[in-house]
Amino acid sequence: MKKNFVLTIPIIIGILAGLFLAFYPQTEDNPKILTETNLIHNGSPILGDHSAKITILEWGDYQCTFCHKFHQTTLNAIKQDFINTGKIKMVFKDFPLNGEDSILAAEAAYCAQDQGKYWQYHDELYKNWAGERTGWVNRNSLDKFATTVKLNLDKFNTCLDNHKYLDKVNQLHQFGKEIGVDATPYFLVFNNEKIIKIRGNQPLEVFLKSIDEL
Hints:
- This is DSBA oxidoreductase.
- One of its GO terms (molecular function) is oxidoreductase activity.
- This protein is an alpha+beta fold.
- It has one domain: Glutaredoxin (3-Layer(aba) Sandwich), CATH 3.40.30.
- Strands 2-1-3-4 form a 4-stranded mixed sheet.
- The longest helix has 22 residues.
- The chain is globular, with a radius of gyration of 21 Å.
């Protein structure tokens, strides 16, 4: 009886360890996942000086209300004082919480990237934001935005028709989940030594404090 009990202990420990890992997956604190390279890789083209030591990574959704507010307010100040002056670089990664339209908008931005106009198209999407799940993201509106930023429409529509970047968008969404992203906008402000999380559309002062810490 005692021998069977001793043999059972490792089994119980193994089961408990398995349950622990199942309910506590790798998070944003895992250094193997959250390297500077991994965070920048596969996202948007870098906005700003590539050699800037501090990076702001935004996880966003083109239909997200608070993402839109961030792009219309706080981001303008950050661009003027930090990105345009070479102190900070920025990367955008997609976290499409609002369904298929958000995924399609993200695909469209990467199709614009094929023609060297990712950020112009990205900004045009937020400029024309018209609510969450209201239908404003559709093939007609996406073509209109493409025309505004002077894309070749045939190439743009071929890219969208073929869903060239669907896998990329889905992979970014999954990666975000794996590192703990659970809302939009969600920011990681980091250098090669430290990462600071900012959840939601926080006041400019919150970003300035994070930048000062780094």
